[in-house]
Design goal:
Radius of gyration of chain C: 19 Å
CATH topology of chain A: Rossmann fold
Order of helices and strands of chain C: HHHHEEHHHHHHH
Helix content of chain C: over 70%
Number of strands of chain C: 2
Strand order of the largest sheet of chain A: 6-7-8-3-9-10
Largest sheet of chain A: 6 strands, mixed
Number of domains of chain A: 1
CATH class of chain A: Alpha Beta
Structural class of chain C: mainly alpha
Order of helices and strands of chain A: EEEHEEHEHHHHEHEHEEH
Chains: A alpha/beta (240), B mainly alpha (320), C mainly alpha (289)
Largest sheet of chain C: 2 strands, antiparallel
Helix content of chain A: 25-40%
Oligomer: heterotrimer
Chain lengths: 240, 320, 289
């Protein structure tokens, strides 16, 4: 049976430091999965490895039936596997509209250039209001929206979100969660890294708990519906 | 035992160099050694700011040039004894270093490169514009030579100059080693490796930079003074790109941050460029060879060539 | 008195145009890669020599020569990027190392030019003959062309980085390489484009300068040093500030020549620069790096 995305025994790190130790996980078409676990245990590194920013030292990643280990990030983005990085790291001196226009850069995204800009503005009206502002003037939540907006402009077949609600006020968090829910409803499969378990539980079908660069538990919502159990797992095991 | 081991190789090298004139009588070969010693002083002192302290200083040759012109003007125009004139190069260069350090201490990154480099150009333009004093683009010639009592250093195929140059190199090297081994020298390394950490420990980065630049200028200036008195010529060429890149390649090829690496590289490269100059058709191409060597070292052995041989060399030469 | 002043301002404008073209090329590479290209002046020289060979030695005409010179400078620039800059991306000491490798590239190019073309002075004919009078000050038509072309080229580069997708991608790469590659921008291609563009600009400037000054292996050094003063004044971060500083420096230089004479001017210029830096460590116009 072929998976939409499948990671087998991925190990990776920065230079001599190993962060990921033999991670295997998968995502089937139409699914949303969540990654959670304590900070600094490899979740962002995992996304970067899938995106091709970090070359794994071992293991394989297949996307849509093709091996993508060793491909450069632009090729992976062009295949439809798109990551929205944490929003504080965009192009500070460029204007919002410029950035979003630029984001439809790949041959894959180019034909939809005109239409999907309006979709992004419809999803995030705040960005619409701030079209001509420079990115560095945006608030944390708005930067997050811009980051997701850029990813949407790439016409994702699979979208990876890295802590989209990190450090946001409850009101903004809700706004973003709603937007992400809308994206999910359009049929784009998601991989979401989050600290907020409630949010993940609502959004995703399955969760992976990642600790010390390994998958320590896989939770299928269909077989483990007990919310308290998951919470206990998280706070009981992850934070020791 | 440990200390003996550390000094064996440098002392051995010194003994060999001290006996070279007994074996080598050709005036030209001795001349090459003298030039090599001068470059060794320039490169090893430059390394103090560039390698040990991590200041992107591209104005080091300015200190040499200031020393060179100070000695030339003192000896020729004011009739100062050439021995004193040579020594005057040191304080003059130190003052120049202090003037350059004032803006540099506050700058960061590429702006340090640009300003130190521009400072050298400033000095060169001053020399060119003051042709009444400095001889302008022609430079100064027929500068008084060294004497000791009745003995003229022009005699004996440069034997006297050879030992003065070697002596200067030895004193300069001891000076560098004393600086590096002092508590101040240790704080230099801390700043180079982590500016934030050093600042947190209460090390004033600006004051340190000024100190290092001034210290590294002293013997460079004396070497410049000696250069003028020895060659009996002072020329604005010392401020140019050519001298700069030759000295830079010595620091890099020898190993930035080592003590003896730049000295070894200075001697090796002086002879190598001279040998290449002897080959017909390579007179200009030798600079290309050196530039390519510099690039290759940066790509393949970023610590300098000396470090490549580290496993083969006893601790003595590995002293940093 | 007024005539002298106007003549001085016009010659300052010629200098400023030259410096603006040089410095904006440096700025393009700096803002995209964070590299200061010491071989920028040497690229100018390469172009001038190639233009001379094609138009004079081969007799193919000046326009073909200028085009050939510009292209060859772009090509050499891309080779420098690939061989001397690219291997050091991500290195902790990249800034310092690339200063050294591009300095080495400058030596290699200058000495190669000396070997290939020899030390004899060469000069290109002028693209336009005759003289032009601006408010009573007379300059050659070729210099006037340089003055007119410089702002057009600067505006073209500026519009390219602001409007075109490729230009915007260069800015994005300069501001955040990782995020740029996550929207599908090929970072190494962007680097090559930035270097090639900057080198082509140096090449065009060099070929045009070859009709005004003598073509020698070291003809690029003096403009490079002046462009360095410009970027110290204007900062490297923004094209507008860099170009503005170039004109200011050109005019200050011309005024200094008038008041202090040719000999004292460079000294006064450097002194002014150092004094400015003591008070404004990021340059007069440069707010940030």
């Amino acid at each position: 049976m072929s998976r939409f995305l499948e990671l087998q025994n991925i190990s990776a790190g920065y230079g001599p430091i190993t962060v990921l130790r033999g991670i295997s996980l998968h995502l089937d078409a139409g699914e949303c999965i969540g990654l959670f676990g304590p900070n600094g245990h490899g979740k962002t590194t995992l996304l970067k490895t899938i995106s091709g920013l970090i070359k794994p030292s071992a293991g394989s990643i297949t996307f849509n039936g093709t091996q993508i280990v060793g491909k450069k990030p632009p090729a992976i983005v062009n295949a439809g596997l798109v990551q929205s990085p944490q929003g504080n790291t965009l192009f500070g001196e460029m204007r919002i509209q410029e950035i979003l226009e630029l984001a439809a850069f790949t041959p894959r995204a180019r034909p939809h250039r005109a239409t999907n800009l309006e979709k992004v503005f419809a999803l995030f009206p705040r960005l619409d209001e701030r079209r001509s502002q420079r990115a560095r003037t945006l608030s944390g939540g708005e930067r997050q929206m811009l980051s997701i907006g850029c990813a949407l402009r790439c016409e994702p077949a699979l979208l990876m979100l890295d802590e989209p609600t990190l450090g946001l006020s409850p009101r903004l968090k809700e706004e973003l969660a709603a937007a992400i829910g809308k994206i999910s409803k359009t049929g784009v499969p998601l991989i979401v890294v989050e600290q907020d378990i409630e949010f993940l539980m609502e959004l995703t079908n399955r969760l992976y708990l990642i600790e010390h660069g390994e998958v320590v538990r896989e939770i299928d919502r269909a077989s483990t519906p007990d919310h308290d159990e998951v919470m206990q797992l998280y706070f009981g095991e992850a934070l020791h | 035992m440990e200390t003996m081991g550390r000094y064996t190789l440098p002392v051995l090298a010194l003994v060999v160099l001290a006996f070279v004139p007994m074996v080598v009588e050709a005036s030209f070969t001795r001349h090459l050694f003298i030039i090599a010693f001068i470059y060794a002083i320039i490169a090893s002192n430059w390394n103090l700011s560039l390698g040990h302290c991590g200041i992107f200083n591209f104005g080091h040759l300015t200190f040499f040039g200031v020393g060179s012109y100070t000695a030339a003007i003192a000896a020729k125009t004011y009739g100062v004894d050439p021995w004193v004139a040579i020594l005057l190069g040191g304080p003059a260069a130190a003052v120049a270093a202090f003037l350059m350090a004032a803006p540099v201490a506050r700058l960061k990154g590429i702006y340090v490169v640009l300003v130190t480099f521009a400072f050298g150009q400033l000095a060169m333009q001053l020399v060119l514009s003051q042709s009444d004093i400095t001889g302008g683009a022609q430079g100064m010639v027929r500068i008084p030579y060294l004497r000791l009592g009745e003995y003229s250093f022009l005699k004996d195929y440069k034997l006297g100059y050879y030992y003065v140059a070697l002596g200067l190199l030895v004193v300069s090297t001891i000076f560098i080693k004393l600086v590096i081994d002092s508590p101040f020298g240790k704080s230099l390394k801390a700043v180079r490796d982590s500016e934030e950490y050093a600042a947190a420990r209460g090390v004033s980065v600006s004051r340190q930079r000024v100190m290092v630049l001034v210290l590294s200028a002293i013997f460079t200036g004396v070497a410049g003074g000696f250069y003028s008195i020895y060659l009996r010529v002072a020329s604005p060429e010392v401020f140019g790109f050519g001298t700069l890149s030759l000295a830079l390649s010595m620091v890099l090829i020898g190993g930035a941050g080592t003590i003896y690496g730049p000295i070894a590289a200075a001697i090796a490269l002086t002879f190598a460029t001279e040998a290449l100059a002897g080959v017909r058709g390579l007179e200009e191409a030798r600079f290309i060879v050196i530039a390519v060597a510099m690039i290759l070292v940066l790509r393949l052995a970023p610590g300098g060539l000396l470090r490549l041989f580290e496993p083969l060399v006893p601790k003595a030469l590995r002293q940093r | 008195m007024i005539d002298t002043l106007i003549a001085t301002l016009v010659s300052g404008l010629v200098l400023g145009s030259l410096y603006a073209l040089m410095a904006s090329g440096l700025s393009v590479v700096w803002t995209t890669l964070g590299v200061f290209n010491f071989s920028h002046g040497a690229l100018m020289m390469v172009s001038a020599f190639v233009a001379w060979t094609v138009s004079e030695a081969l007799g193919l005409g000046l326009l073909v020569g200028i085009a050939a010179g510009t292209l060859s400078a772009a090509l050499v620039g891309i080779i420098i990027e690939r061989l001397l800059v690219r291997p050091f991306y991500g290195d902790r000491n990249m800034l310092l190392i690339t200063v050294m490798t591009t300095l080495a590239a400058m030596i290699i190019l200058e000495k190669s030019a000396l070997i290939i073309w020899g030390a004899r002075l060469k000069q290109l004919p002028r693209l336009i003959e005759g003289e032009i009078s601006i408010f009573g000050a007379t300059i050659s038509a070729h210099e006037a062309l340089l003055v007119a072309l410089a702002p057009l080229l600067l505006i073209a580069i500026w519009q390219f980085t602001v409007r075109s997708t490729v230009g915007r991608s260069l800015r994005a790469v300069g501001q955040n390489q990782e995020s740029a590659s996550l929207i599908g921008i090929d970072v190494s291609k962007a680097f090559a484009i930035a270097f090639g563009l900057s080198a082509a600009l140096a090449g065009l400037t060099g070929a045009l300068l070859g009709s005004i000054r003598f073509i020698t292996p070291t003809m690029g050094s003096e403009p490079l040093v002046k462009a360095m003063i410009v970027v110290i004044f204007g900062g490297l971060g923004s094209l507008g500030a860099t170009a503005g500083a170039a004109y200011v420096i050109g005019i200050i230089e011309a005024l200094l020549i008038l008041w202090l004479g040719l000999y004292w001017t460079p000294f006064a210029l450097f002194l002014l620069m150092i004094v400015v830096l003591v008070f404004r460590p990021n340059g007069i116009f440069g707010g940030r790096e």
